[in-house]
Amino acid sequence: MSRTAAASSGVREAVAEAHRREWAMVLAATVRVAGDLDLAEECVQDAYVSALDAWTRDGIPTNPGAWLTVASRRRALDAHRREKTLRTKLPLLIEPNTAPDESTMDIEGVDVIPDDRLRLVFTCCHPALAREAQVALTLRLVCGLTTGEIADAFLVSEATMAARVTRAKKKILAARIPYREPSATELPERLDAVLTVVHLLFTTGHTAPTGEDLVRADLVDRALRLTRMLAQLMPDEREVRGLLALLLLTDARRATRSTSDGRLALLEEQDRSAWDRAAIAEGTSLVLGALRGGYPGRFALQAAIAALHAEAPTYAQTDWRQMRRLYDELLRVWPSPVVALNRCVATSMVDGPAVALAELDELQRDERLAGYRYLPATRADLLRRLGRAGEAADAYQAALALTENAQEREFLNRRLESLV
Fold first, then answer.
1. Of 96, 168, 86, 154, whose CA–CA distance to 125 is shortest?
2. Cα separation of 341 and 337, whole Å?
3. Percentages helix, strand, coil for the chain, rounded to the nearest 5?
4. Which of 360, 364, 402 is nearest to 381 (CA)?
5. Residue 236 phi, psi (nearest 5)
6. How would DSSP label each residue in 350-368?
7. Confidence at residue 175, expressed as pLDDT on a 0 to 100 scale
8. Average pLDDT, stretch 396-414?
9. What is the DSSP code (8-state) at residue 60?
């Protein structure tokens, strides 16, 4: 490869990495200048395209995010000077009395939400939209997830999710929904949607749906930062504490989820002495606070389940009966088929794999789980434990057909080979 080709390849990799890590920050900063989400998105996209040429010519900047932010905001200002030709695509996110200019673009009033990214998440979770539309649109535009990743989180096809995002944008335009930063009194009604966005962002990073790596650390770390900011903004909200506890307790195992040679390690195989004990201590303390003061919410209950895993000396010594009781309560609060599937795992540890398999057979009728890779994977494991190798092999094959993450595929193939 020539020196020029190598440099060009390095620039493309730098731009791709900046897109993955900095998109949300650049978009959030640009919205404050553009005043319009669609315009801001186009300006950010243009900035990334221009970076390919500029960075090849001038070198990759020390702070790619800052470079992209400046370039994108300048494009937004230029668009305003061109008679705001793109402003009608989506209703205003921010409604200034006059078009912003370079002398006022960084002069802000007192913000209810001090962080650009968190402010934009709250802004996009507008109650006039259906809850799934709020969450999907925010994950796509603000958090930078692909339509496929969002579809995976919602257990629907990519085409279905793309249609939902498109319909949400059209509704905003047709109904002239006034997108603007919410006031302090409006935050509570948007909080559950915001928590859902952050949780799905974390979940997508915790086990990446596609790619070579099991974990996308950039998404996990972004979700943790947003949740900590939420905890500072709304310290009395129990579900905020619950979500922060859940994320800390779950991420405490990050270093042990893959072996040194890049193989997926199940919870029962992980070195518990290497778990992040500071994160576990903080998370456990937060769980106790989230459970006090009335009926716990779905994030507090999930955090309590994560705490049982974190506190158990070994996998076998986990308090599975208590965990199943927590899943029962979680199903009452949040009747999700994924929760029901996870409850089957607890049942298998309490009553044995045969009882759990009977429950799973009933759950398999739920169409929402039709493309969920962990349904056949769980079935395969239960059949393996029952010694039904042929049926287990078929279930592992079904799981492989739905799995795109390289480490998960390698694990399933190992399990499949062990049956021979």
1. 168
2. 6
3. 70, 0, 30
4. 360
5. -90, -5
6. HT-HHHHHHHHHHHTT-GG
7. 66
8. 96
9. -
Q: How does pLDDT run across 73-107, given as a tens digit for each residue?
A: 998 888 877 645 444 544 544 444 444 444 333 43
Residue owning tokens 């209703």:
91
DSSP alpha helix (H) spans, 125-216: 131-141, 147-154, 158-175, 187-206
Instruction: Report pLDDT digits (tens) over 133-185.
Output: 889 888 887 787 888 888 888 888 889 888 888 888 777 766 666 557 788 89
Taking every pair of Cα atoms in the chain, the longest distance, rounded to a whole number of angstroms, is: 73
149/210 Cα distance (integer angstroms): 8
Q: Which residue has better confidence, 139 or 239?
A: 239
Does the domain made of 3-88 have the CATH classification 1.10.10?
A: no
Eight-class DSSP state of 404: E
SS (H, E, C) 382-396: HHHHCCCHHHHHHHH
Locate tokens 């402003």: which residue?
Answer: 87
pLDDT of amino acid 176: 66
pTM of the full predicted structure?
A: 0.83
Q: Which residues of 63-87 are buried (b: 16+ CB within 10 A; e: fewer)?
A: ebeebbbebbbbbbbebbeeeeebb
Domain ranges of the chain: 3-88
